Amino acid sequence: MKTYDIAVIPGDGIGLEVMPEALRVLERVADICGFVLKFHNYDWNCETWLRTGQMMPNDGINQLSQSDSILLGAVGFPSVPDHISLWGLLIPIRREFHQYVNLRPVRLLPGIPCPLANKKPGDIDFWIVRENCEGEYSQIGGVFGEGTPSEGAMQTAVFTRYGTDRILRYAFDYARKLGRPHVTSATKSNGLFHSMPYWDSRFEAIGKEYPDIRIDQYHIDILAARFVMSPERFDVVVGSNLFGDILSDLGPGITGTIAVAPSANINPERTYPSMFEPVHGSAPDIAGRFIANPVGQIWAAAMMLEHLGEVEAANLVMKAIEKALDDPLAPRTPDMGGKAGTRELGNAITKKIVA
Ligand code: NAD
Ligand code: IPM
Ligand code: MN
Questions:
Q1: What sections of the sequence does the record tag as coiled-coil (predicted)?
Q2: Nearest bound ligand to CA 102?
C-alpha cells in the first residue's frame, strides 16, 4: 500500500488543539482511499526555546528533509519574542526547502456569516500567490547609532530577478491551470522607489509570455479596498512576501473568519518537502480553551493530500468540510457565531467523510 511519511509540528497555542482534528480526518480519509500516512511528531515550539535556547535542534532541517510533507500548526507565543520564534522555525523551513510559493485560497464557505452584504458561496473565490522566500522578509539591516540622537533602524528588502520571475510565472501558470486566465499584481511602485518598480517591470515582462492571460495591477492600498468592495473581480492575485501576507488575512477576513483559511508552502520542483499550515497563528487569546476552529488546519491537510497526488482524498475532505458547515445543525465554533468546541466541529467533519 502507498505510504507517506508526514512530519507533524503542532507548534504553539491552538496549534496543539487543532492539529489532532486534522490528523483524525487524515486517518479516516486514508482508510477510505487505501493509503497509509505515517505521522512523525516533532514537539518543537516556544517551550523548546525556553528550555534549550533553540526552536529546533541543529539538525532539525535535516530531520524534516526525510519526510514527504510537513504539516504545521502554528508557531509563536508571548513567552518568546516573535522574531526569535518565527526566524527559528517557520521561516527557516520555508527557506531551506525553497518553498517559494505560498498558495492561499480565499473562499466564502457555506454556513459562515459573511461580513459583506448579500454575498453567497461562489461570490468570493480566488487565490493568493504569495512570494515566500525573499522580499521584505529579511535579516539584512540593523539598528544604528544606538543611544545617540541619530538612533534608528534599517531593514532591507531583496527582490532578485530569479525569485521574482519564478513566483510570477507560478501565478500565471496557476491561472491557466484553473482555467481562470486573469492575474492581478499587488504593487506599491508610487511609494517604494526601487523594489516595486522592479516588480512591476518583471510582471510586465513575464506577462508577455502569457498572451492568453489578462493582467491587472493595483497599488496595495486600493487593492485592499477592492478586496472589500468588489471581491468578485479577482481570480489569482500575486504579491510579494509582505503584501501577500497582509492580503491573505484580509481575504479570509471578508469571508467571515480567518480561522478557516489554509496555506500551502510549496516547493514546485519537489526537490524538498512542502509544508501545509493554517493561515492563522497560535491565538494566545483563546489557547487552552479548546474553542479554536479546526477548519483551517483540516483544509491545509486537504491541500497536502492534493500535493501528494491523493486528489480523491483531498476532494473528500473538502466536501466533508462544506457538508458539515452547510448543515444548519452542525456545531460552530465561536469565531463563526456558535458555541461549539474544536473537537465537536472536528468530529462533525470527520463523520461527513464518506466514500
Ligand atoms: P492569530 O492568527 O494567532 O490570532 C488573531 C485572532 O484570530 C485572535 O483573536 C485569535 O483568537 C483568532 N483566531 C486565530 N485562529 C483562530 C482559530 N483557529 N479559531 C478561532 N479564532 C482564531 O494572530 P496573532 O494574534 O497576530 O499571532 C499570535 C501568534 O501567532 C504570534 O506569535 C504570531 O507571530 C504567530 N503567528 C504564527 C503563524 C504561523 O505559525 N504560521 C501565523 C500567524 C501568526
Ligand atoms: C503567516 C504568518 C507568518 C508570515 C509570520 C508568523 C512570520 O503571519 O504565515 O502568514 O508572516 O509569513
Ligand atoms: Mn500572516
A1: none
A2: 2
Alpha carbon distance 173, 317 (integer Å): 25
Task: Give the architecture (CATH level 2) of 135-254.
Answer: 3-Layer(aba) Sandwich (3.40)
Spatial separation of the C-alpha atoms in residues 307 and 264, rounded to whole Å:
9
Residue 293's pLDDT is: 98
C-alpha cell at 107: 473562499
CATH of domain 1-103+263-355: 3.40.718.10
- Best residue among 45, 72, 86 to mutate for probing ligand 2's pocket (most ligand atoms within 8 Å of CB) is 86
Ligand nearest to the CA of 287: 1
pTM of the model: 0.98
pLDDT averaged per 10 residues in sequence order, the chain, 355 residues? 98 98 98 98 98 98 98 98 98 98 98 95 97 98 98 98 98 98 98 98 98 98 98 98 98 98 98 98 98 98 98 98 94 96 98 94
Residue written as grid cell 526601487:
194
pLDDT (0 to 100) of residue 134:
98
Residue 36: the pLDDT is 98
Ligand 1 atom with least separation from CA of 342: 19
Q: Which of 152, 148, 139 is nearest to 83 (CA)?
A: 139
Query: CA Rg, the chain, in Å?
Result: 20
Find the helix packing angle between 295-308 and 342-351, rounded to 10°: 40
C-beta 75 within 6 A of ligand 1: yes
Its sign, for the CA torsion 339, 344, 346, 349, is negative
Residue 355 pLDDT: 87
- Helix or strand or coil: residue 219? strand
- Break the chain into its structural domains and give their ranges: 1-103+263-355, 135-254
